[in-house]
Amino acid sequence: MYACVYVHTHTQIYTCTRTHTYTQENPAELHRYGACLGLPELREMLKAKLQRENGIRNREIMVTAGANMAFVNAAMCLCSPGDCAVLFAPYYFSHRVALELLGVCVCVCVCVCVSMYI
Fold it and tell me: Which pTM does this prediction carry?
């Protein structure tokens, strides 16, 4: 089985292909997320692209399965139990739940649009 990831930039499409071997001894591999930091091959490829095309060096990157996973990973890095975090309404309910599960006090700021130009 192959997993293909395509990363689009302004001028090129990078392809990272990794062969997965699934055996009867380890069927759980078929039904779970990968490493929290992302596929190592893809991360190395992106780091090389950032260095080559953007001059960005000595940085670690993370590739997530989506925005919610990125939010949870960032919250786990930045927040400690007892901290307070502000969510601007409307917000994703899962973001509030993630913060509450981390023991973070959630303050909701309701935003009201008083003008079409704000």
Answer: 0.62
